[in-house]
Amino acid sequence: MTVVTRFAPSPTGFLHIGGGRTALFNWLYARRMGGTFLLRIEDTDRQRSTDAAVDAILDGLKWLGLDWDGEAVSQFGRKDRHAEVAHQMLAAGKAYRCYCSPEELTAMRDAQKASGQPMRYDGRWRDRPDSDAPEGVAPVIRLKAPQEGETVLKDLVQGEVTVQNAQLDDLILLRADGTPTYLLAVVVDDHDMGVTHVVRGDDHLTNTFRQIQIFNAMGWDLPQFGHIPLIHGADGAKLSKRHGALGVDAYRDLGYLPEAVRNYLLRLGWSHGDDEIISTEQAIEWFNLEGIGRSASRFDFAKLDSLNAHYMRQADDSRLVGLIAPRLEADLGRSLTDADRDLLTRAMNGLKQRARTVVDLAQSARFYLAPRPLAYDDKAAALLDDKGRATLAELAVRFANEVDFTAAALEAQVRAFAEERGEKLGKLAQPLRAALTGSTVSPPIFEVAELLGRDETLARIRDTAVAA
């Protein structure tokens, strides 16, 4: 059997981070099993579905690196096929027409609520002939679901789950206007697309039991189902925007790398021993549905930051320059030159060691390209007092006469000066850091000076005298 999985989002908003995890699990399982990963846009809700949301979903999946096989399928585009199946069930006696008016249904639910009964359709048209139909009422088509016995689901994640059939009412297959319902459309699409494994959030568990009735009514083979526990916030509460329930695009804007987000989402509900850092190649090799836990996962930004910092350090320097360039250009109000990009590339190894996100990286790199005179933060300004400027004036002389303007040679100069004055290296290096970066935190300062070059280094030191 060739494994076929699918990701089937509704285009009513952005690609939620939980949806991203569901897509990842389906993608990994298909790739692990040498199968097929399909994308279906469930856009039957025409009032809420938008083209912008479709674009956001496709863009989010591409950013995460989750490629799908074939073209994305529009569920709405298959509505005629869905209706065809409903009429097949009607002809086979597996479904029936229901002529209840909205007012009747409301009265039914109110009576059930008042008597403490579950609110569901009571089957009043289940065995009535169409000849009893009132004039001028367009019927819906309902499934004639089994009323006795039980439905057992051997879930790949949750284990065996059983529901009494009496708890499941006769769901609507086709609305009065002839449009299919979500429950029908999903079953028809999964069957027609040859889906073998339906892996989705456990909020769909109730839907699954209702969909099984449709599969059975049509005599179709059931796919295997796996229902993933939902993601909660770090405090255990249902995931909300304050916890990180954002669109995948927001994580890109926050400066996270896609490989870090993939790794984090993988570990958010799935485990492989004690492994935390798992490359995409390893994930494809190791992933299985048995490794998915049954308990809700907790979203933790601190862990995501830690993972992202790891992947930042591993990332190609030129790639990182490309990622921070738009942010720097917006901040500086100008385009970066080839010389700017070359400087940032050479500086990147020192910069990325301390960055947690691309946003951090852009902020820490800014001083290399900032216009002179630099703006000094409060701590840097405090170092550029009379004593600090006197120290810098002496260092400027030594730097100007240094033949080998390298980090090693400059550090040797400052060390020699510190020994002459009987002071620690840091006492002299910190005013230099303040002068060259405008801050008290930066990559190794002698590397910074080498990268800036003799002329720019001396110019920045001279600026401190003017700023006094």
Automatic annotation (TrEMBL):
<dbReference type="GO" id="GO:0004818">
    <property type="term" value="F:glutamate-tRNA ligase activity"/>
</dbReference>
<dbReference type="InterPro" id="IPR000924">
    <property type="entry name" value="Glu/Gln-tRNA-synth"/>
</dbReference>
<dbReference type="InterPro" id="IPR033910">
    <property type="entry name" value="GluRS_core"/>
</dbReference>
<dbReference type="InterPro" id="IPR049940">
    <property type="entry name" value="GluQ/Sye"/>
</dbReference>
<comment type="function">
    <text>Catalyzes the attachment of glutamate to tRNA(Glu) in a two-step reaction: glutamate is first activated by ATP to form Glu-AMP and then transferred to the acceptor end of tRNA(Glu).</text>
</comment>
<protein>
    <recommendedName>
        <fullName>Glutamate--tRNA ligase</fullName>
        <ecNumber>6.1.1.17</ecNumber>
    </recommendedName>
</protein>
<keyword id="KW-0963">Cytoplasm</keyword>
<keyword id="KW-0648">Protein biosynthesis</keyword>
<dbReference type="InterPro" id="IPR045462">
    <property type="entry name" value="aa-tRNA-synth_I_cd-bd"/>
</dbReference>
<keyword id="KW-0030">Aminoacyl-tRNA synthetase</keyword>
<dbReference type="InterPro" id="IPR008925">
    <property type="entry name" value="aa_tRNA-synth_I_cd-bd_sf"/>
</dbReference>
<feature type="domain" description="Aminoacyl-tRNA synthetase class I anticodon-binding">
    <location>
        <begin position="326"/>
        <end position="463"/>
    </location>
</feature>
<dbReference type="GO" id="GO:0006424">
    <property type="term" value="P:glutamyl-tRNA aminoacylation"/>
</dbReference>
<dbReference type="GO" id="GO:0005829">
    <property type="term" value="C:cytosol"/>
</dbReference>
<feature type="short sequence motif" description="'HIGH' region">
    <location>
        <begin position="9"/>
        <end position="19"/>
    </location>
</feature>
<feature type="compositionally biased region" description="Basic and acidic residues">
    <location>
        <begin position="121"/>
        <end position="131"/>
    </location>
</feature>
<dbReference type="InterPro" id="IPR004527">
    <property type="entry name" value="Glu-tRNA-ligase_bac/mito"/>
</dbReference>
<dbReference type="InterPro" id="IPR020058">
    <property type="entry name" value="Glu/Gln-tRNA-synth_Ib_cat-dom"/>
</dbReference>
<dbReference type="GO" id="GO:0005524">
    <property type="term" value="F:ATP binding"/>
</dbReference>
<keyword id="KW-0436">Ligase</keyword>
<dbReference type="Pfam" id="PF00749">
    <property type="entry name" value="tRNA-synt_1c"/>
</dbReference>
<dbReference type="InterPro" id="IPR001412">
    <property type="entry name" value="aa-tRNA-synth_I_CS"/>
</dbReference>
<feature type="region of interest" description="Disordered">
    <location>
        <begin position="111"/>
        <end position="133"/>
    </location>
</feature>
<keyword id="KW-0547">Nucleotide-binding</keyword>
<comment type="similarity">
    <text>Belongs to the class-I aminoacyl-tRNA synthetase family. Glutamate--tRNA ligase type 1 subfamily.</text>
</comment>
<comment type="subunit">
    <text>Monomer.</text>
</comment>
<feature type="short sequence motif" description="'KMSKS' region">
    <location>
        <begin position="238"/>
        <end position="242"/>
    </location>
</feature>
<dbReference type="GO" id="GO:0008270">
    <property type="term" value="F:zinc ion binding"/>
</dbReference>
<keyword id="KW-0067">ATP-binding</keyword>
<dbReference type="Pfam" id="PF19269">
    <property type="entry name" value="Anticodon_2"/>
</dbReference>
<dbReference type="InterPro" id="IPR014729">
    <property type="entry name" value="Rossmann-like_a/b/a_fold"/>
</dbReference>
<dbReference type="InterPro" id="IPR020751">
    <property type="entry name" value="aa-tRNA-synth_I_codon-bd_sub2"/>
</dbReference>
<dbReference type="GO" id="GO:0000049">
    <property type="term" value="F:tRNA binding"/>
</dbReference>
<feature type="binding site">
    <location>
        <position position="241"/>
    </location>
    <ligand>
        <name>ATP</name>
    </ligand>
</feature>
<feature type="domain" description="Glutamyl/glutaminyl-tRNA synthetase class Ib catalytic">
    <location>
        <begin position="3"/>
        <end position="305"/>
    </location>
</feature>
